[in-house]
Backbone:
């Protein structure tokens, strides 16, 4: 795989979150200086605790909706709550984080002539009428629903990235990330993989939304980051967007059954209403990433779940997860 030049200074916004903390770790392993910026809305210091003593790691509490003046060579812009429960908690702030955050990080990149990566999302495809989703599909997004703050915020961020690219010649990399899971997801994050595992381990009912026939494709965090790092180091003729995700598709009911079976849990499945605008199907077409990044996921869902279940098992045993913790 391609490696960074050893002495790069890399900014990771949202670096104390699930994906961000793994990314910081990998960048340090590759020999870079890492500046982790986070406002701790959904991320925690605990996620980066093992890195705090590292001589090349720096943690800064900062909200990306405010200007940031630092000196770096690369920017990974990951700051944004990703779980529907969290991004709908303060939807105006969610749009601000995506849009004002993108403007500030793009302004920073412009001043420094730094390459900048945007963590975009499969949500830009909304409830897709094309399946699987290729990058040239424009999506089917409700602009005024409860998910819009996230979906439209991320779409507007993509627009800003491409306008800074065209208007100011900025070196951009836009990844459309599909559902990703793994250790360090917040136990009360609200996303389906963490919810089902925590519920199964605690013997609580598994909260299945709708009839569970809606589909998602789950990518292990290690695969996702490999793709993201390859995209960041790809040539200037690949600004993106590039889909990154695992093309293996499962119904949510299949996921529930698998988690119950793998944990040996006695939890029962409780059916709840399907939330408004919940996409009915989702699966990435990763032809572009295969061709241009020579990348595809290697970790099968069952294999990735073994490790993720073990992580939550340890976390619950150590009292590190409060089942009914309020939103931050
Ligand atoms: P996460 O919630 O664990 O991490 C997001 C981080 O951003 C948190 O540490 C949070 O505190 C921080 N943050 C939020 N608002 C901020 C602000 N205004 N200023 C500074 N920091 C702020 O979620 P994640 O899964 O790690 O997602 C990381 C990024 O990847 C997000 O941009 C998300 O939209 C994107 N993404 C993730 C997935 C996935 O399945 N995990 C899928 C598609 C896109
Ligand atoms: N910005 C920043 N850090 C920098 C440079 C700019 O946070 O090092 C912010 C700046 O506050 C501005 C935004 O990025 O609001 C966009 O900057 P740009 O130069 O593109 O636009 P302008 O300053 O002309 O509005
Ligand atoms: N889901 C579920 N039970 C839960 C949490 C989520 O059935 O406790 C469903 C949710 O309605 C959606 C799918 O699982 O159909 C994926 O949800 P998640 O919030 O993880 O991601 P997103 O909808 O953003 O893809």
Residues:
């Amino acid at each position: 795989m391609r490696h960074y030049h050893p002495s790069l200074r890399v900014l990771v916004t949202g670096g104390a979150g699930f994906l961000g903390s793994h990314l910081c770790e990998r960048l340090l392993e590759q020999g870079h200086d890492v500046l982790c910026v986070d406002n701790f809305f959904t991320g925690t210091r605990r996620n980066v605790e093992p890195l705090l003593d590292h001589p090349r790691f720096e943690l800064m509490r900062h909200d990306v909706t405010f200007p940031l003046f630092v000196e770096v060579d690369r920017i990974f812009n990951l700051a944004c709550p990703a779980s529907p429960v969290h991004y709908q908690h303060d939807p105006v702030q969610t749009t601000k984080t995506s849009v004002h955050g993108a403007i500030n990080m793009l302004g920073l990149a412009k001043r420094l002539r730094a390459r900048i990566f945007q963590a975009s999302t499969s949500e830009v495809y909304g409830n897709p009428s094309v399946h699987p989703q290729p990058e040239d599909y424009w999506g089917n997004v409700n602009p005024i629903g409860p998910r819009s703050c996230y979906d439209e915020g991320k779409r507007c961020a993509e627009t800003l990235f491409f306008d800074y690219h065209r208007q100011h010649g900025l070196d951009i990399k836009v990844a459309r990330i599909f559902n990703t899971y793994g250790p360090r997801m917040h136990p009360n994050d609200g996303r389906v993989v963490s919810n089902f595992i925590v519920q199964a381990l605690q013997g609580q009912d598994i909260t299945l939304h709708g009839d569970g026939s809606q589909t998602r494709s789950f990518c292990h965090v290690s695969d996702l980051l490999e793709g993201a790092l390859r995209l960041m180091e790809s040539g200037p003729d690949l600004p993106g967007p590039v889909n990154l995700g695992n093309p293996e598709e499962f119904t949510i009911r299949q996921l529930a059954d698998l988690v119950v079976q793998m944990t040996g849990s006695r939890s029962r499945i409780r059916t709840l209403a399907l939330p408004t605008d919940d996409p009915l199907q989702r699966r990435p077409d990763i032809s572009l990433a295969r061709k241009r990044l020579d990348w595809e996921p290697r970790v099968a869902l069952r294999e990735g779940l073994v490790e993720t279940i073990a992580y939550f098992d340890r976390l619950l045993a150590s009292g590190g997860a409060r089942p009914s913790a309020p939103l931050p």
